[in-house]
Amino acid sequence: MVGDETWLRKARDELFSGDDRSQYLHIGFFITWFSAVEIRISMLLALATLTPRMEGFELLTRGMDARVKLERLRKACDADGLFKIGPNLAARLNVFEKTSLPLRNKLSHSFLTTDPNYDSVHLSSISRLPYAAYGMQPQGKTPEQISFLELFERGLWLSYFQHDLAALIQDVLKNKAREGTLEIGQPRSPLPQESNPHSGQPKQPSNAGKRARRRQRKGLPQRGKPKP
Q1: Cα(145)–Cα(123) distance, rounded to whole angstroms?
Q2: Are 176 and 208 in contact (CB under 8 A)?
Q3: What does the pLDDT read at residue 136?
Q4: What is the pLDDT of residues 17-30, one digit of tens each?
Q5: Is 145 helix (H, G, I), strand (E, B) or coil?
Q6: Is 26 exposed, middle or buried (0-12, 13-18, 19+ CB in 10 A)?
Q7: Cβ count near 106 (within 10 Å)
Q8: What is the pTM for the complete model shown?
Q9: Torsion sign (Cα): 74, 177, 38, 99
Q10: What does the pLDDT look like over 52-75, one tens digit per residue?
Q11: Side-chain half-sphere CA neighbours of 105 within 13 A
Q12: 3-state class of 73 per DSSP?
C-alpha cells in the first residue's frame, strides 16, 4: 500500500476531479462495456459447445483474448455445428471485431495522455509522442487521437450490444435449446448501413451530415436518446 485509507481517499478525490478526469471516465466507460461484451461472447461459446460446467470451461479458455473467443465461436457454429449464427448477431460481431477490438488494443498498449484542450486523448508510443501538443519541439510522427465524445459513443454501442447478447443468452437458457440459431431478435445496437443484414431498411438521406455518416460507417449509435 502507498498510504493509509484516509490518505488514499484524499488522493483519489484530487486525481479524479483534476484535469485528467475526462480521460479516466471515458476510457473506464469503454473498457467496462468491452469486458461485458467479452464475457457474453464467452458464455455463447460455452453454450455453442454444450459445455456443462462453466468452471471447467473457464479453466480451458483462461488466457484467450476476445479475438480468439470470437474466432472459436464462429468455428463452433460452422456447417457441422449444432448452433448457427443469425444475420443480426453476425453483423454485430463483425462490427465488434472491426471497430471495438482494435480500439481496445490501442487503449491497452498505448501511453494515454489528455490533449491540452481536454477534449480528446493521445494514443502515444515511443515513436509517436505528442511533443508539439505540449509546446515542445516536434519529434517523430504525430500520435493518433480519439475525441472523448467518440470514445463515449464507442462505449455506448458496446453497452447496447451487451444488452442484446444478454437477452440472447437468456432466451437460449430459458428454452434449454440444444441446437438452433443464435440470433438477436430486437437489437438495440445500431449497425453501419453497409453491415445491415436487412436490405429493406430505408437508406440514410443524402443530405445527412458528415459526422452522422461517419458514425454510421463505424457502427456508432446516432445522436439522441436510445429507444427502449
Answers
A1: 6
A2: no
A3: 55
A4: 988 999 999 999 99
A5: strand
A6: buried
A7: 14
A8: 0.80
A9: positive
A10: 888 888 888 888 999 999 999 999
A11: 10
A12: helix
